[in-house]
């Protein structure tokens, strides 16, 4: 008597999804009719374009559901998944993208739970949820990773950061499957190629940048640079300099914590101090979990930890001299009267160098020039902090 309940729930969810579709297409129709200067074009779009988009989404969903556990058509499944992700990104279909991620996450969960991850030989007839599945192979793992990388890129394009972080967890689960399979006797599955992992961290740099998570953006750059330097023997000196510069600048953009400054006043805050401590513990737990998912070398990532890694591995030796000078000003300079004057020409040089290496305005967003603004903010914060430490009172005119 309990079996119909999941089906009823699924039908309810599907009805909700259909209602969302109806609301969306009705809203699109109103938008087209009110914003378009060409009523005939708006009518054509309403009559032809929107139904075509809905039909195409339904096709993608049906194809993926049919191919979800068929090993012989596995490449076709992942090709359809990437095409569906591209469709969501190109037409800004955020609702469909979330549903697509949930659907593929369910498919991965079934393959992980019923697909014989921990067994040497797999009997496909044991469970109807993975009918047609012949077991996890190196190709299966690589295809799943590549599809999630495309999913991560689409999440960045649509600025759906929550889905991006959930995709990171999916990738971690796939890597765990690979690790479990490698421990089985007689199963020969190599670890994911360094090239694949480098592509993963490269996409993470973009996700964390657009979500303004400078700490993990810098750690992703560090992992990407380390993999490229270790495994890419054809890496040119120019590429090495650019990547090392990105690691340093991304690290310098990480905001400094103010916990040390509040130690002396925490006793007088009472209940607020307790609440703040609880919130800090929750934030640290989340950060430790994310660091584990991303495969970072520490469970407590911080600005100081990453700067220590940069110094210990001599990454700073690969960056241009003017960026080394900027690093010294931001990290070692304590004189508030001349630090801005010294840093301004260096930031101007960084901006000019980035503009010279960019062929157009769109490319500039992916160069080192994008770090100028957050570095300027860090410089201002350091200036104010140093002024507060050096002076009891100071006029605004003197600061200017």
Structural write-up:
The N and C termini lie far apart (about 75 Å). It contains 16 helices and no strands. With about 400 residues, the protein is mostly helical. It is globular. Helix 3 packs antiparallel against helix 4, helix 5 (about 140-160) runs antiparallel to helix 6 (about 160-180) and helix 13 runs antiparallel to helix 15.
User: Could you report the average pLDDT, rounded to the nearest whole number?
Assistant: 80
User: Could you tell me the number of beta strands?
Assistant: 0
- What would the principal axes of the Cα set say about the shape? globular
Main sheet specs: none
| Overall helicity | over 70%
Question: How many DSSP helices?
Answer: 16
What share of the residues does DSSP label as strand, in percent?
under 5%
Which ranges are low-confidence, i.e. pLDDT below 50, for 5 or more consecutive residues? 1-17, 30-35, 258-269, 360-364
What is the CA–CA distance across the termini?
76 Å
Order of helices and strands: HHHHHHHHHHHHHHHH
Please tell me how large the radius of gyration is. Answer: 26 Å
Would you tell me the structural class of the helices and strands?
mainly alpha
